[in-house]
Structures are given as structure tokens and as C-alpha cells.
Amino acid sequence: MSRLVLAGLTAALAVYSYFDIETGLPLLTAQVMTHRGTVVPVSRVLSSGLHITWWLQIIAAALLLGAPYIALQTPRFVSWCLGRYSPAQWEPLLRILPLVKEMTGILALLDSSYLASRIHLEIHDARAHGPLLPADWLMSVDRMELKWLLVLMVMWGIVIYLYIAKIEDAANEE
Questions:
Q1: Burial class (CB in 10 A: 0-12, 13-18, 19+), 120
Q2: Distance between CA 147 and CA 71 in Å, rounded?
Q3: Domains in the chain: how many in total?
Q4: pLDDT, tens digit, for every residue of 47-63?
Q5: CA 48 to chain centre
Q6: Contact in structure between 138 and 67 (CB atoms under 8 Å)
Q7: CA distance linking residue 4 with residue 48, whole number of Å
């Protein structure tokens, strides 16, 4: 898959998350009990968490998509990374660079998909309940999030493992 397509899909997910937050939060009419015994609108409870998740989605995508470009433009990093190789050994390293860029693009898409689905599911779950959410509702959402985070980490591991094999093949080509 092209790096531009991966970056476009990642950006589209960030835009989707933004509009999901902006259109979904005003529709939340349910109330939730706080630990103090007061009742507050669930939209107020979720607002800051969803916006932080959205910013995390943008920052993580930017870091993952930009890491290969930033690393090659930083002279200190290039001299540290490539300085221990002879110029004849640089060619395989530069040959694997497109694979590294593609791998980081896939990781950014996976990460962005996870965070966008987390935002969507939290809003949907809050809308699915009645007018008063149970006090432990937010803890149950967090527990569900940890399970999906484990799935995301396994998927990251699989992608990295597969691309390491591709990188080794590209580096060993003559």
C-alpha cells in the first residue's frame, strides 16, 4: 500500500474522530453519578477525555508518519546511524528505507484506527444507556479499552515482525 494512501487514511480517521466528538457530545443527555454523590452530564465527563484522545491520535500519527523523514534529515542521527557503516554498506540501508516508511505508515493507521474506534465506542456506549448511567460505567469502558489495547499491541508486533523479515530480505539482496 502506498505511503500516501496510508497517510490519507490516517488523516481521514483523525477528521472522522473530530466530527464524531463535535456531533456526538451535544447529543449525550444521560447523567452519571460522581464519587461525591452528585449527578453531572456525561458529555461533561467525556469531553476532556475524548479531546485528549483525539490530540493523542494526531500526535501519534504525526510522529509515526514523520519519524523516517525526521531521522534522515537530522545530521547527528544520520552520522550516528550510518557512521558505523562503510559507504558500500549504505546502499542496502537506503534500499530498505521505503519499507521502513511503509511500516510506520501501517503502524500509524493501526494506531489511528484504534483511537478513532475508542472515541466512537465511548460516545455510542454513553448514548446506548438510559437517562442515568451507572457509577462504574466509566471503569467498565476503561477495562474494555485495556483489552483492545492489548489487541493493538499484538497487531503492532505482527506488523513489525513481518516488516523486519522484509527488511532483512531487502538488505541481503545483491
A1: middle
A2: 33
A3: 1
A4: 888 899 899 999 999 98
A5: 18
A6: no
A7: 31
